[in-house]
């Protein structure tokens, strides 16, 4: 690649200004910050979250000042506060997503920014500016790719977005930011093997990206040199981690849009690829009377990415992480309970014989379209015991910019997350703080007040 993509992207994000941001970008920044904070609190009660936190305490030493979501009074050093918060944000597959990029920008970016805010006073406006900047980079790296997913992009692109956000927050010069990107290249990692096996290390990879972003930015500020061509070099990010890259339209769009407006909520705590199928089942239950006793077979026919990500079959003793990415089991849960919630992923529910039996009637099939990154259009097809075959079309994803959550649906999700994390009492206070977030003088102090009151 002859173009200086690294320099172009760095220049763009360092120049972002809250005063110039359109109303829609400002609203999206605050809305998805609220969603992310609440989801991170809920993640505090994911089965392995305590283990992750305990290990971080062992690694971090003493003198930490950055708080951890859902753990009032606890403090860690910045890299490991970012590590634990990023893990908690992503570990239940409930954090928002940039669908075209196939990435979860907020898990890494927000975790890194919260950790930095614990080290020095950060205003709400500056925090939100940096948040927009970080999402710009993660999304840009994802949408530039036309080939299939090779590595776990929420981690591999997430570290660059987090470095960009931190560089903006700290007011770093372009050359130092480029050095930080070089260190990010050295730290970048994230494999899809964990996805295939349904292992919780997916969230650990996101956590590692947030932690390493702080280390990368600190090394650059300290003057430690790093490669310049971190993105477009012959052994840079695009050559090593991606394939079939077209940067021209991405670079041409800089300044004409904010990618944060393109984020989608996750209405259900599952892999995003399962959401269209969940909605299709709900529609058939409502409109066609589909029920567990009337279903003979259900097939969700969708773009290849959907089958690849959530088409796995249920297996005996499957883990929570496996189940979140197994639509057959998720669909059985929907038919039995009407939806999927944080409280459904219990050992008893995972081993429920009735659900497992019903799951054997539910399938995901590829429609063989050539667009590997598409989530829609798709169709749910149910064969019923009365001889009917009924269909539910899915043209857009619930929670996407084309079909957003209502304000009440957003608030209801935040409330449920805070309650699951044991901080229901903070619901109204958190919503009020986020509403006027750009007016805050000290983000860490204000969020500490809300979560530790």
Provide the helix percentage. Answer: 40-55%
Percent in strands = 5-15%
Report the principal-axis shape: globular
In terms of structural class, how would the helical and strand content be classed? alpha+beta
Output the strand order for the largest sheet: 4-3-5-6
Number of beta-strand segments: 6
Q: What composes the largest sheet?
A: 4 strands, mixed
Would you kindly provide a written description of the structure presented here, covering whatever features stand out?
The protein is 52% helix and 7% strand. The N and C termini lie far apart (52 Å). α2 runs parallel beside α20 (407-420), α2 runs antiparallel to α21 and α9 (174-187) packs antiparallel against α11 (201-222). The chain has a 4-stranded mixed β-sheet with strand order 4-3-5-6. The chain has a two-stranded antiparallel ribbon with strand order 1-2. The protein is an alpha+beta fold.
Brief synopsis:
By secondary structure, the protein is an alpha+beta fold. It contains 22 helices and six strands.
Which helices and strands, and how do they pair?
Elements: H1 5-14, H2 23-42, H3 49-60, E1 66-67, E2 75-76, H4 78-90, H5 105-117, H6 124-143, H7 153-156, H8 158-170, H9 174-187, H10 193-197, H11 201-222, H12 237-241, H13 248-252, H14 275-288, E3 295-302, H15 304-310, H16 320-324, H17 327-337, H18 347-350, H19 353-359, E4 362-366, E5 378-384, E6 389-394, H20 407-420, H21 427-435, H22 443-452
Parallel strand pairs: 3-4
Antiparallel strand pairs: 1-2, 3-5, 5-6
Helix pairs in contact: 1-6, 1-9, 2-4, 2-20, 2-21, 3-4, 4-5, 4-11, 5-6, 5-8, 5-11, 6-8, 8-9, 8-11, 9-11, 14-17, 17-19
């Amino acid at each position: 690649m002859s173009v200086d993509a690294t320099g172009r992207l760095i220049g763009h994000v360092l120049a972002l200004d809250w005063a110039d941001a359109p109303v829609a970008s400002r609203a999206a920044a605050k809305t998805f910050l609220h969603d992310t904070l609440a989801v991170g609190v809920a993640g505090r009660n994911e089965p392995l979250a305590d283990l992750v936190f305990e290990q971080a305490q062992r690694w971090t030493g003493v003198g930490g000042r950055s708080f951890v979501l859902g753990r009032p009074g606890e403090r860690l050093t910045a890299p490991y506060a970012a590590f634990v918060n990023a893990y908690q944000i992503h570990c239940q597959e409930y954090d928002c997503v940039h669908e075209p990029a196939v990435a979860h920008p907020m898990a890494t970016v927000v975790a890194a920014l919260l950790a930095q805010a614990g080290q020095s006073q950060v205003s709400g406006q500056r925090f939100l500016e940096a948040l927009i900047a970080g999402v710009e980079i993660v999304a840009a790296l994802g949408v530039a790719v036309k080939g299939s997913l090779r590595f776990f992009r929420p981690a591999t692109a997430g570290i660059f977005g987090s470095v960009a956000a931190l560089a903006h927050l700290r007011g770093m010069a372009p050359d130092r930011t480029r050095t930080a990107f070089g260190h990010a290249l050295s730290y970048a990692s994230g494999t899809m093997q964990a996805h295939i096996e349904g292992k919780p290390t997916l969230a650990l990879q996101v956590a590692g990206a947030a932690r390493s972003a702080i280390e990368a930015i600190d090394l650059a500020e300290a003057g430690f040199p790093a490669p310049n061509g971190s993105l477009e070099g012959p052994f840079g990010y695009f050559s090593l981690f991606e394939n079939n890259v077209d940067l021209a339209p991405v670079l041409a769009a800089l300044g004409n849009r904010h990618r944060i407006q393109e984020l989608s909520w996750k209405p259900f705590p599952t892999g995003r690829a399962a959401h269209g199928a969940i909605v299709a089942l709900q529609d058939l239950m409502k409109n066609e009377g589909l029920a567990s006793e009337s279903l003979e077979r259900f097939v969700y026919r969708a773009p290849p990415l959907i089958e690849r990500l959530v088409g796995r079959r249920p297996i005996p003793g499957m883990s929570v992480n496996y189940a979140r990415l197994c639509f057959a089991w998720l669909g059985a849960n929907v038919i039995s309970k009407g939806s999927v919630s944080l409280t459904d992923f219990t050992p008893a529910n995972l081993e429920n014989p009735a659900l497992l039996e019903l799951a054997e009637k539910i399938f995901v099939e590829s429609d063989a379209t050539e667009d590997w990154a598409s989530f829609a259009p798709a169709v749910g097809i149910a064969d019923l015991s009365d001889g009917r075959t009924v269909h539910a079309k899915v043209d857009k994803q619930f929670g996407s910019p084309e079909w957003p959550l209502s304000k009440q649906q957003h608030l209801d999700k935040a409330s449920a997350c805070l309650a699951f994390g044991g901080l229901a009492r903070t619901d109204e206070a958190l919503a009020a703080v986020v509403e006027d977030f750009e007016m805050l003088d000290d983000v860490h102090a204000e969020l500490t007040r809300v979560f530790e009151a």
